[in-house]
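Exercise 7.
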Amino acid sequence: MAELPTGTVTFLFTDVEGSTRLLHELGDAYAEALGKHRKALRECFMRHGGVEVDTQGDAFFVAFARASDALAAAAEGQAALEPGPIRVRIGLHTGEPLVTDEGYVGIDVHRAARIAAVGYGGQILVSQSTRDLARAHGLRDLGHHRLKDLTAPERIYQFGDDDFPPLKSLNTTNLPVASNPLVGRETELAELAAILTDSERLVTLTGPGGSGKTRLGLQVGAELLEHFPGGVFFVPLAALSAPELVRPAISRTTGVPRLEELAGRRALLLLDNFEHLLGAAPDVAALLEAGDSAKVLATSRAPLRVHGECEFAVDPLPESDAVELLVQRARSVRRDFAPDEHAKEICRRLDGLPLAVELAAARLRSLDSAALLDRLDRRLPLLTGGARNAPERQRTLRATIEWSYDLLPDDLSALFARLAVFAGTFSLDAAEQVAGCTVETLDALVEASLVKALPGNRFLMLETIRELALERFAELDDVAELRARHARYYHSVALSACLDTDVPDEQRPEIVFPEAPNLRVALAWALETSETDFGLDLLVALEQFWVLGYTTEAMRWFTAFLEHADGAPPLLRARALRSFGSSAHFAGEFEFAERLCEESLAEYEQLGDEHGIAVLLHRLSIFALHRGDIEQASALSERSLELHRLLANDKGAAQPLALLGAIALRSGDRERGRALLEESAELAGKIRWRWWRAGTLSALAEVAIADDRIADAQGLLHEAVDLALQFGDRVGLSWYLSQYALTLLHDSRTEDAGRVWGAVEAAAAFVPGGPWPRDLDRLQHEVLALADAAFETGREAGRSLSLEEAATRMCAID
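Solution. The predicted structure, written as tokens, is:
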């Protein structure tokens, strides 16, 4: 594609009128006619210096450096299509867009597309700015028209003297003018348009304050104006103080004396901010029951709860859309604002709530993004100063959240505050056991849009909302008891996952992954209240969790607690030192990890704890092998295996078996090495120790690759990948996928190999201590030695894939 014009740019959009009808009329000949249309337009656009930005279906998006060239290209293009069956509408608009890596960004792009959309086949529509720059004074003035972006009216001109019906603009509605176009929400708009043009009569947009329900509702109304010839009416309810005022408000807006008289008209009522007037819901039901034509789109923080209601949850914006919103609004106060990593983090910290993002953007007038981010620890006081013409409750983030809070009865207000004890998401069981919720009371808070329901009976309080809840939480009488109950509950959750090496039951790290924020809160409570033994026991209970990508965090926690652990029971201290050593090992601090394991072994020997001794002997053998001391590594592993077998501990025995297998392979005894690894993997499978089995299968796959048994290696890696996916081991998954990329190269499937490799590189999930750096360096050298141009193509494409997507594609490859 040619370089995009910058500075002042004229955009040209085309669209085929009645494409569905033409397809039915022309049948197989439609494809040929469409092809001729594309060829003719492209030639015209290119002759006049147009750069084709995008083509979707039968529509063109072209940019011109000069408005006069764009207008000439449009005129020539329309003439080139005569007298063929395909007629296109063309819209032109000139502005000063921003050019990014993804193309043009800004209001002017949307405006040009909207201008084209209101026209008819054969018609060329031109904005005021394009007319002025092209100096085209002979155009027909069609007057001011409101477009579907809801911003201020645009004066539109027509090129040529042909007569067309009135433009399909929004001049027959009371929808308020928006100051800016809607950002994102394409999926929601499409879904809502489909719902409201189908059989649903009442749709309620629900969501927390500031999530953009009103703005989305207005856009839906604008998009559907053609479907409701009886009118699209916006009825703001926020200022009303009582349910009995709703009927008169609708009547005043629509000009209909009796509400039921609307029922037979194909009209759409947009009832905005219904949450404090739910007593008027029967009036809405009466309207819908009186006829079958009118429809209602309501926005509310709680559903209306009437028959036939379709509730549509409006979630916060995804990160990319939130960042675009921040950039657009920031540039209205600071034209040179450029997005950076701080901008992304601002949007994450604000939960992607449009109101919060807009309020933050206003602060960028005087702060840069880094300074704003530093001040977001206290969001509610900072995010003030919204537009003066906005409702009072939308001028600060606090006001919009308190609006929902003030509608709660006293018992739910207290419960809302109690739920602030949780961080991140929490389960229904946790809400019941810790905060004293019931299903009914929790559901009421979900209805009030103060808590969000998630799949798997989990719940979330957005951080922007939780900040207000924490203020109320501090006012409760039983704060200390609530925090202690919270910590004890999550200690029991950690124990149930069986991640302590001493526990023989099946390890289930997937239990604690969603609980990580709450586990941190529990550890912080233990540190703050000097509950050192409790904290150490919780850390040890999570031993296997820490090595799945949380080693640096674990190191900080262990250091903090062990500083105050002089009085800890000897067995607890031994276990803590062992677990600390495990995290230090995976963090790549091998010498420090070995010292910790030696201290732990000394504690276990003083206690005469044979199980603990056996575990530590194995761990010390790993360090010996890492140093290249094969003799010591073998002796320590043999002694560990002997003790574990005396104790009938299959979980313990599986570990030195694998290390002895690695030693045998390094010594050249491949048959014995493979047999020991297979025995270790079999034991791990028998006791359902998925993490260990996956790692041992990976070691067997490495043997298979060296023996040129590529199909065998791929089968082993398939199971290893599946196991890693089951319990969320991103470190292991990265290693297994890297090995799989090597097998694909051996199979001459270089582009597929590159795609898998690219995903692993983008994930950057490796930790310094597992796999060992020299193993990773060796594998990388082998892979890149076999890479070619096709590998690089796949590698680039793979960088946009998650590890999970790469694993799914891996299965599809075979």
